[in-house]
Amino acid sequence: MIVEGRLWRRKSKKKNQEKRKKSVTEISKEDATKQETSAQVSKEEGKLNEEKFKQIKEGMTLEEVFKIVGSKGKVISETGTNGDSNHTVIYEFETAGAFSTANMTFEENKIINKTQIGLN
Length: 120
Known about the structure:
Elements (H helix, E strand, L loop, with lengths): L1 H43 L5 H6 L6 H8 L4 E6 L8 E6 L7 E7 L2 E8 L3
């Protein structure tokens, strides 16, 4: 009887261990899915996409545009001196599309032109 009791406990213990392993595996799969989703979101963060591009309107300030895009972009051209009435800066923004590009021209810290190719 004692032997049978020990065998029963072993079998019961083994079943519980298998259940725990299964639960851990399922939880790990869920965590991996959440991590993939958050990684996709973070990859898009700070990149310009079509939705963000449409929100940007002529006359917006640099700061307003940077806030929408989520990054400051890269200066690719600048004429004049900051504070001058003819100070013009062209920014290139990192885009979410593989073969896309977007540039915006600012004069006196306000957007006067925006162009994009391939955003979707």
